[in-house]
Protein backbone atom coordinates (compact mmCIF):
# COMPACT_ATOMS: atom_id res chain seq x y z
CA UNK A 1 0.00 0.00 0.00
CA UNK A 2 1.42 3.37 -1.07
CA UNK A 3 0.31 5.75 1.67
CA UNK A 4 0.45 9.42 2.62
CA UNK A 5 -1.19 11.82 5.06
CA UNK A 6 -2.89 14.81 3.47
CA UNK A 7 -5.14 17.78 4.14
CA UNK A 8 -8.19 17.60 1.85
CA UNK A 9 -9.61 20.82 0.47
CA UNK A 10 -13.21 22.01 0.57
CA UNK A 11 -15.21 22.88 -2.53
CA UNK A 12 -14.50 26.63 -2.38
CA UNK A 13 -10.75 26.00 -2.18
CA UNK A 14 -10.96 23.51 -5.03
CA UNK A 15 -12.85 26.07 -7.11
CA UNK A 16 -10.04 28.61 -6.61
CA UNK A 17 -7.30 26.12 -7.44
CA UNK A 18 -9.15 24.95 -10.54
CA UNK A 19 -9.55 28.58 -11.62
CA UNK A 20 -5.75 28.94 -11.36
CA UNK A 21 -5.39 25.83 -13.49
CA UNK A 22 -7.63 27.38 -16.13
CA UNK A 23 -5.36 30.43 -16.28
CA UNK A 24 -2.48 28.09 -17.05
CA UNK A 25 -4.46 25.95 -19.47
CA UNK A 26 -5.56 29.01 -21.47
CA UNK A 27 -1.93 30.00 -22.14
CA UNK A 28 -0.19 26.62 -22.36
CA UNK A 29 0.44 24.70 -25.55
CA UNK A 30 0.46 21.49 -23.57
CA UNK A 31 0.57 20.18 -20.01
CA UNK A 32 -0.67 17.52 -17.60
CA UNK A 33 -3.16 19.06 -15.19
CA UNK A 34 -3.99 17.48 -11.83
CA UNK A 35 -7.64 16.35 -11.66
CA UNK A 36 -9.81 18.29 -9.23
CA UNK A 37 -10.36 15.21 -7.05
CA UNK A 38 -6.59 14.76 -6.65
CA UNK A 39 -5.89 18.25 -5.28
CA UNK A 40 -4.76 18.15 -1.65
CA UNK A 41 -1.85 19.19 0.57
CA UNK A 42 0.53 16.36 1.43
CA UNK A 43 1.72 16.46 5.05
CA UNK A 44 3.74 13.24 5.11
CA UNK A 45 4.58 10.76 2.37
CA UNK A 46 4.94 7.29 3.86
CA UNK A 47 5.75 5.19 0.80
CA UNK A 48 4.99 1.48 0.54
CA UNK A 49 3.72 0.05 3.82
CA UNK A 50 1.90 -3.21 4.60
CA UNK A 51 -1.66 -3.16 6.00
CA UNK A 52 -0.22 -4.29 9.35
CA UNK A 53 1.14 -0.74 9.86
CA UNK A 54 -2.29 0.90 9.80
CA UNK A 55 -2.75 0.57 13.57
CA UNK A 56 0.52 2.45 14.15
CA UNK A 57 -0.57 5.20 11.75
CA UNK A 58 -3.94 5.35 13.52
CA UNK A 59 -2.24 5.85 16.89
CA UNK A 60 0.15 8.45 15.48
CA UNK A 61 -2.46 10.75 13.97
CA UNK A 62 -4.77 10.35 17.01
CA UNK A 63 -2.00 11.49 19.33
CA UNK A 64 -1.29 14.95 17.89
CA UNK A 65 -2.97 18.23 18.88
CA UNK A 66 -5.04 19.36 15.91
CA UNK A 67 -7.17 22.50 16.31
CA UNK A 68 -8.92 23.84 13.20
CA UNK A 69 -7.04 26.61 11.41
CA UNK A 70 -6.74 28.35 8.05
CA UNK A 71 -4.03 27.61 5.51
CA UNK A 72 -2.83 30.69 3.61
CA UNK A 73 -2.27 30.35 -0.13
CA UNK A 74 0.02 33.19 -1.12
CA UNK A 75 1.55 32.57 -4.56
CA UNK A 76 1.43 30.83 -7.90
CA UNK A 77 4.85 29.58 -8.94
CA UNK A 78 6.73 27.23 -11.22
CA UNK A 79 9.88 25.18 -11.49
CA UNK A 80 11.27 25.26 -15.01
CA UNK A 81 12.78 22.01 -16.19
CA UNK A 82 13.48 20.18 -19.47
CA UNK A 83 10.28 18.67 -20.85
CA UNK A 84 8.03 21.35 -19.41
CA UNK A 85 7.52 23.35 -16.23
CA UNK A 86 5.82 22.30 -12.99
CA UNK A 87 3.30 24.90 -11.80
CA UNK A 88 2.19 24.92 -8.18
CA UNK A 89 0.08 26.81 -5.66
CA UNK A 90 2.16 27.76 -2.64
CA UNK A 91 1.11 28.16 0.97
CA UNK A 92 2.64 30.43 3.57
CA UNK A 93 4.51 28.38 6.21
CA UNK A 94 2.34 29.63 9.07
CA UNK A 95 3.05 28.50 12.66
CA UNK A 96 -0.15 26.42 12.67
CA UNK A 97 0.73 24.56 9.48
CA UNK A 98 4.32 23.92 10.56
CA UNK A 99 3.19 22.75 14.00
CA UNK A 100 0.78 20.19 12.53
CA UNK A 101 3.43 18.81 10.19
CA UNK A 102 6.09 18.61 12.89
CA UNK A 103 3.71 17.00 15.39
CA UNK A 104 2.69 14.42 12.82
CA UNK A 105 6.32 13.74 11.88
CA UNK A 106 7.28 13.24 15.54
CA UNK A 107 4.29 10.98 16.17
CA UNK A 108 5.07 8.84 13.14
CA UNK A 109 8.65 8.42 14.24
CA UNK A 110 7.52 7.46 17.73
CA UNK A 111 5.34 4.78 16.20
CA UNK A 112 8.28 3.66 14.02
CA UNK A 113 6.34 4.29 10.82
CA UNK A 114 8.47 4.87 7.72
CA UNK A 115 8.26 8.56 6.92
CA UNK A 116 10.53 9.23 3.95
CA UNK A 117 9.47 12.42 2.21
CA UNK A 118 8.02 15.32 4.17
CA UNK A 119 6.58 17.97 1.88
CA UNK A 120 7.39 20.71 4.40
CA UNK A 121 11.02 21.82 4.72
CA UNK A 122 11.99 19.46 1.91
CA UNK A 123 14.67 20.44 -0.58
CA UNK A 124 13.78 19.44 -4.13
CA UNK A 125 16.13 19.77 -7.06
CA UNK A 126 14.54 20.92 -10.33
CA UNK A 127 16.71 21.62 -13.33
CA UNK A 128 19.92 21.82 -11.30
CA UNK A 129 18.44 24.41 -8.91
CA UNK A 130 17.55 23.58 -5.34
CA UNK A 131 14.40 25.16 -3.94
CA UNK A 132 13.05 25.02 -0.42
CA UNK A 133 9.38 24.17 -0.70
CA UNK A 134 7.56 24.96 2.52
CA UNK A 135 4.24 23.80 1.15
CA UNK A 136 3.00 23.50 -2.39
CA UNK A 137 0.23 21.81 -4.30
CA UNK A 138 1.11 20.79 -7.84
CA UNK A 139 -1.42 22.11 -10.34
CA UNK A 140 0.19 20.97 -13.59
CA UNK A 141 3.30 19.26 -14.97
CA UNK A 142 5.08 19.27 -18.32
CA UNK A 143 3.66 22.69 -19.14
CA UNK A 144 4.99 24.46 -22.22
CA UNK A 145 6.01 27.10 -23.06
CA UNK A 146 8.05 28.02 -19.99
CA UNK A 147 7.09 31.71 -19.86
CA UNK A 148 3.29 31.81 -19.75
CA UNK A 149 3.00 35.25 -18.15
CA UNK A 150 5.51 37.71 -19.66
CA UNK A 151 3.90 40.59 -17.75
CA UNK A 152 4.11 38.82 -14.38
CA UNK A 153 2.53 35.81 -12.71
CA UNK A 154 -1.02 36.48 -11.43
CA UNK A 155 -1.48 36.71 -7.68
CA UNK A 156 -2.99 33.78 -5.81
CA UNK A 157 -3.94 34.80 -2.28
CA UNK A 158 -6.73 33.29 -0.21
CA UNK A 159 -7.37 31.36 3.00
CA UNK A 160 -8.46 27.72 3.10
CA UNK A 161 -10.05 26.20 6.21
CA UNK A 162 -8.34 23.05 7.48
CA UNK A 163 -10.64 20.70 9.36
CA UNK A 164 -9.27 17.20 8.81
CA UNK A 165 -6.21 15.08 8.07
CA UNK A 166 -6.72 12.00 5.91
CA UNK A 167 -4.60 8.90 5.42
CA UNK A 168 -4.71 8.21 1.71
CA UNK A 169 -3.80 5.20 -0.37
CA UNK A 170 -2.43 5.99 -3.83
CA UNK A 171 -3.21 3.54 -6.64
CA UNK A 172 -2.48 3.67 -10.33
CA UNK A 173 -5.53 2.91 -12.45
CA UNK A 174 -4.53 2.95 -16.11
CA UNK A 175 -2.68 6.20 -16.87
CA UNK A 176 -4.07 7.99 -13.77
CA UNK A 177 -3.24 7.99 -10.07
CA UNK A 178 -6.26 7.77 -7.81
CA UNK A 179 -6.35 8.46 -4.07
CA UNK A 180 -8.54 6.53 -1.63
CA UNK A 181 -9.15 7.72 1.97
CA UNK A 182 -8.51 5.11 4.66
CA UNK A 183 -8.66 7.10 7.93
CA UNK A 184 -9.82 10.61 8.79
CA UNK A 185 -8.76 12.65 11.82
CA UNK A 186 -11.05 15.62 12.43
CA UNK A 187 -9.82 18.86 13.94
CA UNK A 188 -10.76 19.50 17.57
CA UNK A 189 -11.44 23.03 18.84
CA UNK A 190 -9.47 23.83 22.01
CA UNK A 191 -11.22 22.74 25.19
CA UNK A 192 -13.31 19.98 23.58
CA UNK A 193 -12.90 16.23 23.59
CA UNK A 194 -10.61 14.68 20.95
CA UNK A 195 -12.39 13.38 17.88
CA UNK A 196 -12.25 9.80 16.78
CA UNK A 197 -10.62 8.45 13.70
CA UNK A 198 -13.26 7.70 11.11
CA UNK A 199 -12.31 4.62 9.15
CA UNK A 200 -13.26 4.80 5.52
CA UNK A 201 -14.53 1.71 3.81
CA UNK A 202 -11.67 0.18 1.84
CA UNK A 203 -12.22 -0.12 -1.88
CA UNK A 204 -11.79 -3.60 -3.20
CA UNK A 205 -8.74 -4.05 -5.39
Helix-and-strand structural type: alpha+beta
N to C succession of SSEs:
EHEEHEEHEEEEEEE
The helicity comes to 10-25%
How much of the residues is beta strand, in percent? 35-45%
Task: Give the end-to-end Cα distance, rounded to a whole number of Å.
Answer: 11 Å
Counting DSSP E segments of at least 2 residues, the number of strands comes to: 12
Shape: globular
Main beta-sheet annotation: 5 strands, antiparallel
Individual helix count:
3
Features of the shown structure:
205 residues, alpha+beta, 5-stranded antiparallel sheet, 3 helices, disordered C terminus
Q: Can you characterise this structure?
A:
This protein is of the alpha+beta class and 205 residues long. The protein is built from 3 helices and 12 strands. It has helices at residues 11-27, 54-63, 95-110, and strands at residues 2-8, 30-33, 40-48, 69-79, 85-91, 122-126, 129-133, 136-144, 158-162, 164-173, 176-186, 197-199. The strands form 3 sheets. Strands 3-1-10-11-12 form a 5-stranded antiparallel β-sheet, covered by helices on one side. A hairpin with a 2-residue loop joins strand 6 (122-126) and strand 7.
Provide the fold topology.
Layout: E1 2-8, H1 11-27, E2 30-33, E3 40-48, H2 54-63, E4 69-79, E5 85-91, H3 95-110, E6 122-126, E7 129-133, E8 136-144, E9 158-162, E10 164-173, E11 176-186, E12 197-199
Antiparallel strand pairs: 1-3, 1-10, 2-8, 4-5, 4-9, 5-8, 6-7, 10-11, 11-12
Helix pairs in contact: 2-3
Amino acid sequence: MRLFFAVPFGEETLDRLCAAQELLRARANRGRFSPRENLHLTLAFLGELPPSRLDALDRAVKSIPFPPFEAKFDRLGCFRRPGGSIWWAGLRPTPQLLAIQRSLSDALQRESASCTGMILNMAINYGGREELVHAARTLARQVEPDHLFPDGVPALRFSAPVGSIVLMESRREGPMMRYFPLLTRHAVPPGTQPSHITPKERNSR
